[in-house]
What does this fold into?
Amino acid sequence: MTSAQTLTRMIMAGQGKVPADTVIKNVRMLDVITGAVTTTDIAIVADRIVGTHASYQGNTVIDGAGRFAVPGFIDTHLHIESSLVTPLEFDRCVLPYGVTTVICDPHEIANVLGAEGIRYFLDSAEQTVMDVRINLSSCVPATGFETSGAALEIEDLEPFRNHPKVIGLAEMMNFPGVLNADPGILAKLVAFQGGHIDGHAPLLLGTALNGYLAAAIRTDHEATSAAEAREKLAKGMAILIREGSVSKDLKALAEILDENTSSFVALCTDDRNPLDIAEEGHLDSSIRRLIAMGRPLHHVYRAASHSAARIFGLTDRGLLASGWRADIALLDNLEDCSVSDVITAGRLVVPALFDARQPVLPVGLTSMKATPVSADSFITEPRPGQNSTPVIGVRPGLILTFREEATLASTERGLQPDLAADIIKLAVIERHGKNGNIGRSFVTGFGLKRGAIASSVGHDSHNITVVGANDDDMAVAVNRLIELGGGFAVADGGRITAELALPLAGLMSLEPFETVSHDLHILRAAALALDCVLPEPFLQVAFLALPVIPHLKMTDRGLFDVDKFDFVS
It folds into this structure.
């Protein structure tokens, strides 16, 4: 809360009667409402802009040097866990790209640890330099068709509702539960009526969409075509254009962002790993690409800041004007969105800011409870009376998967992969120590000619998912992950060729993001050596087990038809 003394100083400094705490001199400020660019000073007291004018005095002066000033960027939906680093490392990794606020759903860690995982994220959010806000995970587990490490009902979420970092209810991905008025889902929706409820409704249209929106759900980041996004916009949903490491919807949705819609469109990454951040950037990459695709420049910056803030009720940020939170990105070039300095809550981002944070103790270091497997664990028997086998079809840049059919050879070791047709084995191993389930099937689209790739990141219940050309390497990769306490592993010829340990809940590393990025380079090279054709194979593996995204998915309980919302018979 701002004291009367600080507020008085803000009012006086805004008039130029006393020096500001900080003044950014000689910047070209973009007005994201009108598109005007004005050469000015920006005066700041505490965490607030108190004036934009030709000449201010300040106790600290930042030389704008003719650079462009824009509001700090807001990532409106992401899972920090998918960065593979802790929230404090994510903070250090992403804030220099101009992202001053993120709205996080700790859904992944909550599926492993329940309320303990949410508490860990809230404790971390109180230490981060950027403003990390939390939407409370609405669907843990995402469905009843997989084995999760935890379950969260409304009584588990209620204790967190009034935490200052909490915005509302996170992505309501169980849309069949909404449409069928499931009692547990209804309890959560009722509790958050009048607050923010985040949406998650892939391919949901027509009267089904109307029913979903009747629950006062306001946003969607799952639109994958312009037509889908336009119907949702017309029905009052804000569209969050997503561009992550696997889900890449920006190209398909760019056309919806214009002068008529930019107040109802925002940007998000959902899931993005540190290697992609190092190579491409974060939201700055999306801004850059949208402008290059001809989207009106100041409307793109509006979507990345002011619109995002309004959609999520953050009424103090998103503009560079007196009285607004001092979240500012300084750019060398507007079209390229080349960020050279960042101010968050009035503070210039320098290493000392990160050094001053208090550590947060890791949790979930003993969450890996899977039983070691053998090659025999992956024997897949033919379906009685069926000549063909359902195969999950994977396409780069999509978490949507597709149902295909194949006729596979059968031996005494069951159905065999068809490497010439790019059909390999897939299995999901329950890892929470509850039942030891193993679901088995086949997948196409990876291109593997040998070896195996395993991951304990397996949205959303985070069991171990493994794909492979042979049973022996699949067993080697899975058993190594069990030894590591979670992570990624590549096996070839009976040995591990690359690995990354993720011991925090089997989802996050305890190492700096630079180390994780380096190890991901080695993992990608090891996957490429297996002839893998996917640019991001590890997160692509992770999404094979997500039974709320059409069309065909794999859980520890079996092959799942998302369109029918039931197991494949």
